[in-house]
Amino acid sequence: MPTDTAVTTVSYLEAIAEALGSEMEADPDVFLIGEDVGQFGGAFKVTKGFLDRFGPRRVVDSPIAESGFTGLACGAALMGLRPVVEFQFADFISCAFDQIINNCSRHHYRTGNPIPVTFRAPFGARLRAGPTHSQSVEAYFAHVPGLKIVAPATPQDAAGLMISAIRDNNPVLYLESKYLYRRIEVPGPLSLDPVPIGSANVVREGRRVSLLTYSVGVHQGLEAAEQLAGEGISVEVVDLRTLVPLDVATIAASVNKTSRAVVLHEDARRLGYGAEIAATVQEECFWRLDGPVVRIAGKNTPIPTSPLLEDAAVPQLPEIISTLRRVATT
Amino acid sequence: MSRPLQSAMADVFKMPKLGESVTTGTVTRWLKAAGDTVDFDEPLLEVATDKVDSEIPSPYSGVLLEIMVPEGETVEVGAALARIGVPGESGGPAARALLSPIVRQLAARHGIDLATVQGSGVTGRIMREDVEAAIARASVTPSATSSAPPATSSAPSATSSAPPATSAPSAPAVRLGPRDEAQPLSRMRLAIGERMVESLRIAPHVWTSVEVDMQAIEEVRRRHKEQFRREERTSLTYLAFIARAACDALRAFPVVNSSIDMQARTRVLHHYVNLGIAVDLSEQGLVVPVIRDADGLNVRGLARAILALGEAADAATFTPDDLAGSTFTITNPGPFGGYASAPIINQPNSAILSANMVSRRPTAVGDAVAVHYMTILGFSYDHRAFDGVTASRFLAFLRDTLQDRDWEAELG
Questions:
Q1: pTM exceeds cut of 0.80
Q2: What is the ipTM of this complex?
Q3: Which architecture characterizes domain A201-329 according to CATH?
Q4: With a cut of 70, which residues of chain A have pLDDT below it?
């Protein structure tokens, strides 16, 4: 059903739900599967009401067996359905590694046949959820050929990329920020046009330094850019939106303009996705660079449960501002 | 956290206090020489005090830029012993040597002397914006750039009476709109501009052309090109044949291979052909390197010489001598598809030939129409040097040589 006209704002979580519901309305082959997606409405209530709306054949509560239901979904996709698999927390996706990597990601390569599965993984820290419910998983999967990865930062992109992920004929890992679920709202109604996979977005134009980031980092970056604008430092914020395939052209255009690049993500620094971005910038833009490409990232440690320690383990606004300032002016 | 940038300032290493009551130290031996790289904690020098002799480790990583106290001298505790920093900081602001890729590139492209640029970075480093500001300043004070020697110096030796540059007409100022971008001109662009305007100003150009049937050459090329490539690691191009025929035509028409000097009231006849070949430098500019005594080379020799010019262009290894002393010039837009072109004379030559695209076209052969490889050779000449009848006879000679010579014999 279209948006309720009484709704004046749409949260990041509501945008995901709206896009999911709209695709399920439009295409009877789309179905949901995962732990608690039905009766409980999803671990974070993204699919609240879906069981009543679409019935138990299309909203399937699974046992606590990620490898099993992921394999089931892959099989269903081979038979022509378009499953959307929810992992309660991205942390649990490692239980399904074998199905995703050894079966799903290379099926198209091996056979030439489509395997349209969407993996929804609520990821990231800042919710005091400790080391096994706060992880960022993009780096593992970005290394695997055959998987696309999207990580929207805004309600509009959350909806548009969900639609593109479901319609894609091959597996897409959809990384949704559980920190942003209820923190980011935009005026409704949403557009339900697909947002193309593989396309980054310059969300703030600037001249002096490019901040290349995604998900929560986009909002931190916009806030940092606003503060630095008061000091006369013009920051360009690039929301990558899709991690694989990476929109190298947009990144290179931005860095070639500013000559300086800072990469920001919450995942641990060592071999985080920022390493790939920094290496790409160096290859594409070396002769236009005015300084080293700098990474801001989480500490190389599990995410602590203690609020104080968790805040220290993931990038915070003061570090982002001081790093951008240093890169822009040193 | 990211690592802080390496400090751009040089650190001054001072005589440490080697004991409670020690107030002076004697440098007995430096373990590193100026210019050496030193790591943090690596032994740097030996110091003797009245109490003890010590090996002193370096408190900094970097390059030992300057030894300020020679061996054997005794100084107070706290006196400066050496400066350690990044390479190239022998003098001036310490950050001078920290030049980023973009700073180096912009400075080189626009001929900016970085010693004159003030760095605005927190550590004094020259940033991209500083160079851009310097470029903008240089472009509004043209004397700063135009006094530099032109990059394309196939400089005239016979006619040294170049009139002042101020005589070049200037176009009305371009008004910059919001969607326009003003780019500073490179030194090469400025030099080309001045030389082209100057050539058109002093020499009354006349353009003429001749159509040439290249079918015979095409057939010879086809028979020999593979073996030729194996032997010479370059292709057997039309240009080599055209250059060869042009050399013969220049020998037959010496006035075309001459230089005019109106002030001296002379024409200088060159009894050799120094053949200039216009070479594109990745669309950043054009240079005219010279094949000396080209009239002594056959097709193979010319192909080798042309290959060498191309390689020198790729490696940017031309010296001013390579670019000087041409007596006649060929420009070769043919590979890019030009149908016919009217080039500007490379002073102090009297004429220039342009080799255009060779392609299959219908042509009359006897009473029939055949499809042959055809081309148009363009020819601009200085009407002060000779007249249309000479130009036409020169081109007819060139055409007949290309069409009728036994090229097979030359290559076989």
A1: no
A2: 0.77
A3: 3-Layer(aba) Sandwich (3.40)
A4: 1-7
